[in-house]
Amino acid sequence: MASYLGTPMDDVVKLLNAVSALIGAVILPVVVLLVFRMFRIEINAFIHRTNRISGKIAGVDFSIEAQQAEAAGALEKAFESVEQRHPEIRVPDAPAAASIATRTITPTVVENASRSTILWVDDNPEHNVYERRALETIGATFVLARSTDDGLKRAQEQAFDVVISDMARGRDRTAGYTLIERLRKSAIQTPVVIYAGSATGEQRAEAKSKGALDATNRPDELFQLVVTVLNSLN
């Protein structure tokens, strides 16, 4: 049996069920990540043992699927990464990440995402590892491009369900808008989400006026925007 810091994994599952039964399902996502943190357990290690945390509260069954737990962990790490690069950005904490994952991820979302391919255009893809991982946990597949030219070429060669783009690349400080303009001139109407370091109300409005679905600098909003697009493809 797997053990982490001397704590058998089965005991962790029992603790999750016992504590959640005491405090109720409303804050169950908070309990999940707090217990993982308490025992310093990687969510991926947990998923190797079980695909679901389940139990019963007041006679009502509940469960947290593997995708929800893994996406929560990836979003938490994405928040931390964003905060390191942009200290001015106030991002949610670990319980909020868990709540986003458990609210957003449903069997329908997983089914839609498993059929999706997303183009991500960014000259620093290493900055977005955890954001991609959160979406990969629900089945999304990514194609990466480091330049506007490469992104356009890939979009002309292959159909994508969503395009995610940063704003500045090289000398082009509005490369995200350049990409949208060139996609539309090529008759490619794929929804584009701008994911950049700054996304004020004015910047979001400008992005929409340029043809973007929206703009954000928050991993949780990006996750929800992409999921919304994928759900609309039915």
Index terms:
single chain, 5-stranded parallel β-sheet, 234 residues, Rossmann fold, alpha/beta, 11 helices, disordered N terminus
Task: Explain the overall architecture.
By secondary structure, this protein is an alpha/beta fold. It is globular, with a radius of gyration of 19 Å. A hairpin with a 2-residue loop joins strand 1 (3-4) and strand 2 (7-8). 52% of the residues lie in helices and 16% in strands.
Short description:
With 234 residues, the protein is an alpha/beta fold. The chain contains 11 helices and 9 strands. The longest helix is centred in the N-terminal third of the chain and has 20 residues.
SSE blueprint and pairings:
Layout: E1 3-4, E2 7-8, H1 9-23, H2 28-38, H3 43-49, E3 52-57, E4 60-65, H4 66-85, H5 94-104, H6 107-113, E5 117-121, H7 129-136, E6 141-145, H8 148-157, E7 162-165, H9 175-185, E8 192-195, H10 201-209, E9 214-216, H11 219-231
Parallel strand pairs: 5-6, 5-7, 7-8, 8-9
Antiparallel strand pairs: 1-2, 3-4
Our measurement of the CA-to-CA distance between the termini, rounded to an integer number of angstroms, reads 42 Å
**In order across it, which strands form the biggest sheet?**
6-5-7-8-9
Radius of gyration of CA atoms, rounded to a whole number: 19 Å
Task: Specify the biggest β-sheet.
Answer: 5 strands, parallel
CATH topology of the largest domain: Rossmann fold
- CATH architecture label of the largest domain: 3-Layer(aba) Sandwich
Q: Count the beta strands.
A: 9
Low-confidence stretches: 1-7, 21-27, 38-42, 56-62
